[in-house]
Design a protein that fits this description.
Two copies of one chain form a homodimer. The first copy, chain A, is an alpha+beta fold and 299 residues long. Chain A is built from nine helices and eleven strands. In chain A, helix 1 runs antiparallel to helix 2, helix 2 runs parallel beside helix 3 and helix 6 crosses helix 7. Chains A and B meet through strand 3, helix 7, strand 11, helix 8 and helix 9 of A and strand 3, helix 7, strand 11, helix 8 and helix 9 of B.
């Protein structure tokens, strides 16, 4: 069974076409690697690449792209709205098929080690690969951004996991880690009362004692005159989408409000949808191995 | 966008391992062709192969397998429980991705023509490729089986679509055609009263004025002491699975019976499941292009 990993590296360049093309080329026409998607944002001045492949092949492609980014991006001149701390800002690895989280953690650490060894770019490990709870959350690591990193690296507890307590002069630092796929799942309510959406979001999110692996906020969709519980599901294998939907539906009833639809933003793993279909259709003995496309990918 | 077609050829050999292996080899290690599944049944004395690939590559693999089957299978000695009329009994072609039904009909006709030209095996076109309504249904064509075919071919209206009115002496005849993927979908009821299952099956099936593209019978699951509406959905793009489920659920209520689960037998296209998940989750703007695995296959 072929092992398949996804990576979604973020590069601090969303404007210079030549630089972007040279980064993308590292993922193109590579045996065992597929470039699935790219998102460049001029305001953020950031490039987000989505690629899948075998663990070794993907590691090689990422290392090449890191080298390219270090050569071509000078963070001392970088301006953009998105918080960032390096030329390559963050490199998550995500298990897709036939590979355990443990293996992907190892892949992330191997990659991190080689990034330091090859390019002398200091690396923080984050999420499942984090060396301490304080480093699990990327926002904690990135706080201070590129400009604040020289000082931060020297402060107690903030030496990098690979490298010395000094930034790469032009490329800063990078976070590398393994994580579950994240599903951006939003549920629409037939009310324009934002307080109700916020109350439901509060009830459903993990941090207030709701569903595990669920982050949620209430937002207004002004044009449609409705509100939305906007969620990030950080592990759909632990908290399936249908459970979030039914939880929100039940909470909505308390406020005499109805769920009128939902949406998924970006790409979602097939298993997350199959799982919810299985629930609603009451399917017995069903899983993604019964899907034709799974067999096609496995060959 | 790569065109992808599925074929599920049925061969009249389920016992001889050497013959089976030689047929399978035609689909293995072929550039652009993937052998997905095989099912051999000794009682039926039949081999069912599932393969996908590009239209041209798949046609070449099928032609090679037809030649192998003709060389190695002698229908004059064939015994098995499943009705059959040839060494290769039936070859359906099914659109999977980025290809229209019209193109797959053409593929089936090109393949049929070459089968006659190369091997002098007479071919009937069936389903979407049928040259008349009487030939749409495979059962009509196969009636009489191998033993009755010599006489049938000479009877009015039963000349083959390619070839002369005489069977191949050892390989009989074959049916080739294009069809939609068939989904075997069963719905379980919390009653052991077979009459209720039969009444619901009668209400839901197309031939009694129920749902289009739905064949249905009521059956008993004696061990579990329940009954089942067992359905063949012949075009899930026209009649989605959720609609059959909700239709059966509504009919069941008339009999004070509940739907307690459902099952899909064999492989099902991702779109059929995504479609039903979209319905039950009220997903807006959702389709298989939002599924990670779709992007992986498309590359």
């Amino acid at each position: 069974m072929k092992k398949l990993v996804e990576t979604v590296p973020n590069f601090s360049e969303g404007r210079n076409k030549d630089t972007i093309e040279k980064i993308l080329i590292c993922f193109k026409d590579k045996e065992g690697v597929k470039l699935l998607d790219l998102h460049r944002d001029k305001d953020h001045n950031r490039l987000v690449v989505t690629a899948v492949g075998g663990p070794d092949e993907l590691k090689r492609a990422v290392l090449e792209a890191v080298g390219t980014a270090i050569n071509l991006i000078d963070m001392r001149a970088h301006r953009g709205e998105h918080p960032r701390m390096g030329a390559v800002d963050v490199i998550p690895f995500i298990p897709v098929k036939n590979i355990s989280m443990e293996e992907v953690v190892k892949l992330s650490k191997d990659t991190a080690k080689e990034i330091w060894k090859t390019y002398h770019l200091p690396v923080f490990l984050y999420e499942e690969s984090a060396s301490s709870p304080a480093r699990k959350n990327l926002a904690n690591i990135r706080k201070g951004q590129f400009e604040g990193m020289p000082e931060k690296l020297k402060s107690p507890g903030w030496g990098p996991d690979f490298g010395e307590r000094e930034i790469h002069p032009t490329a800063g630092v990078v976070a590398v880690g393994a994580r579950m796929p994240l599903v951006a799942y939003n549920i629409n309510l037939d009310t324009d009362n934002i307080e109700i959406a916020r109350a439901i979001a509060k009830a459903v999110r993990q941090s207030n004692g709701g569903l595990p692996y669920c982050k949620a906020i209430g937002i207004e969709l002004r044009e449609r005159k409705i509100t939305q519980v906007s969620m990030n599901m950080t592990d759909y294998t632990q908290t399936p989408l249908y459970r979030a939907l039914e939880y929100v539906r039940a909470e909505a009833k308390r406020h005499n409000v109805n769920v009128i639809g939902s949406e998924i933003v970006g790409l979602v793993p097939m298993a997350a949808i199959v799982d919810s279909a299985t629930y609603y259709m009451g399917l017995e003995d069903f899983n993604i191995d019964k899907i034709l496309e799974t067999k096609i990918i496995e060959q």
